[in-house]
Amino acid sequence: MNDMTTLSITETPALELHGVSFTHRGQRLLGPLDLRLTGCRRTLVMGPNGAGKSLLMRLAHGLLAPSAGRVSWQQRTPRQAMVFQRPVLLKRSALANLTYALAVNGTPRPERRARAREALERFGLAALEKRPARVLSGGEQQRLALARAWLLDPEVLFLDEPTSALDPAAIKAVEDAVQEFHCRGTRILMSSHDLHQARRLADEVLFLNAGRLIEHTDAATFFTAPASKEARAFIRGELVL
Amino acid sequence: MPSDSGAFVTALNLILGLDPDLLNIVALSLQVSLTAVALATLIGLPLGAALALWRFPGHGVLVVALNALMGLPPVVAGLCVYLLLSRAGPLGELGLLFTPTAMVVAQLVLVLPIIAALARQQVEELHQEYREQLTSLGLSRLRMIPTLLWDARLGLVTVVLAGFGRASAEVGAVMIVGGNIDGVTRVMTTAIVLETSKGDLPLALGLGIVLLGLVALVNAGAYLVGETSRRKLG
């Protein structure tokens, strides 16, 4: 319908990283790496702990500034949102957490409640609207964080290991939400160390190890014929050192 | 001269009989201290939040100075305000010395560092937790201030109370800049000092009981507010 046509016309700007590295206290934690992400795809950032997955997401989203190099969006900076491993919710009701995000992005006051309720409904949280966000279960909190991101209508959604602390049902809910975002035309950049999850979701994979970008390939290629020895070991479930 | 237990009974009679002298003193005490705390809260909370959010040259010095001022002796604060407001002082023309306004200023000087320094700690802690999320939502640091203050509200109630405790209990500052003038600048603490030295123990004791009761009442109220909202908000 109308929405869909506008979405297909406005193309997601490409993200470019030129010689980006991140150094903390004299230790290089990431890079230098060059990267270009195009199209409205689902990109999974994979790799063992400490590979620099979270760092890469934060640099791309602009939460951190690179120590060297440049992070840029082609043409224009798209609307973005991020969902964190541990959801950060404000000390107010579930509904108020959502109306707050709408207030921040400049939604007129009379529209906020209705739109927030709609989002709660979509993520199966309608019955919990008056509950303080901080006493919700881990899965509910993550869904609320997704609902908040949904309201911001992002063109690019970053998810930093959003399911690593959740049970299978909650993981399913998050993955369904990711698909919904993608169907609506949101580019997905999500980190995970769960291979099964990556197989379910990924169009392409960025494989990091020890702060270096080892592979950037289509999911099909990555899972069947990875080019690097590190990725082969990772897929076989061996320890990557 | 009445015995101590006699003084206690007379004190209770003064309170229960709503003795007008006693009521006037209590009213002025509350007026001065509550005004000072309200002003210190209005200035101190945003100031503390700003110190938690911004880093600039001299930031560390300012934080240390603020922390040190939490222990400022009331008589020193009183002396400084006295020098400022005395006829030869820079603000002497305002004619504020020995008025309740001067007492509010003196208590403000005492309470502001407490509220600002403690608020800074609370907001800084919360900011650690919220920073990435709020930045991701696109908030500037200026716009983070109301959000952080509101979400730190439970802890900040205690901060404001600590300020009120300081204001209502101190005697040195209001004594120096107020002068303990009967009916004009006499508050509970200065009256207790005077009546005790005169030997009028019933009035001193009565005021002491009222003072204790007020502080206990305010703290009990804050405890209840804190507990209920903690249970409600998780």
Automatic annotation (TrEMBL), chain B:
<feature type="transmembrane region" description="Helical">
    <location>
        <begin position="203"/>
        <end position="225"/>
    </location>
</feature>
<dbReference type="InterPro" id="IPR000515">
    <property type="entry name" value="MetI-like"/>
</dbReference>
<feature type="transmembrane region" description="Helical">
    <location>
        <begin position="33"/>
        <end position="54"/>
    </location>
</feature>
<protein>
    <submittedName>
        <fullName>ABC transporter permease subunit</fullName>
    </submittedName>
</protein>
<keyword id="KW-0472">Membrane</keyword>
<keyword id="KW-0812">Transmembrane</keyword>
<dbReference type="InterPro" id="IPR035906">
    <property type="entry name" value="MetI-like_sf"/>
</dbReference>
<keyword id="KW-1133">Transmembrane helix</keyword>
<dbReference type="GO" id="GO:0055085">
    <property type="term" value="P:transmembrane transport"/>
</dbReference>
<feature type="transmembrane region" description="Helical">
    <location>
        <begin position="148"/>
        <end position="165"/>
    </location>
</feature>
<feature type="transmembrane region" description="Helical">
    <location>
        <begin position="61"/>
        <end position="85"/>
    </location>
</feature>
<feature type="transmembrane region" description="Helical">
    <location>
        <begin position="97"/>
        <end position="119"/>
    </location>
</feature>
<feature type="domain" description="ABC transmembrane type-1">
    <location>
        <begin position="26"/>
        <end position="222"/>
    </location>
</feature>
<dbReference type="GO" id="GO:0005886">
    <property type="term" value="C:plasma membrane"/>
</dbReference>
<dbReference type="InterPro" id="IPR049783">
    <property type="entry name" value="ABC_perm_TupB-like"/>
</dbReference>
